[in-house]
Write a structure and sequence with these properties.
four-stranded antiparallel beta sheet; alpha+beta; 120 residues
Amino acid sequence: MKKKNGFTLIEVLLATVLIALGFIAGSVFFYANRKNLYNARLERYATWAAIKNVEKIKGEAYIQEEESTEDITLGEYNIPAQLTVSITEPEDDQLIWKVMAKVKWGENEEVSLVTYLPKI
């Protein structure tokens, strides 16, 4: 009997299925990675907004107790967010102000930054 060269239909079908599964798995990986990068970038923009406001307060000559809220946008995506800055007056025996900047966006995304400034 003569030996035949080539692949059977089952082998070709199995190879096609395995290649398709590989492409699907790769697509899922890249989609999840892209989503994580997007969320990390938004978190970085929110952190920068909080740092910017805390540094502005540090540069002021006079600090008083207050809480302020303003609407901002995050980065090149122009994602609407809300920045809340609260300054808590120190108690009698403490010599530091507590400054907290909080940026909220989306349904439940939030970045908080707390720092303490000396009472002068």
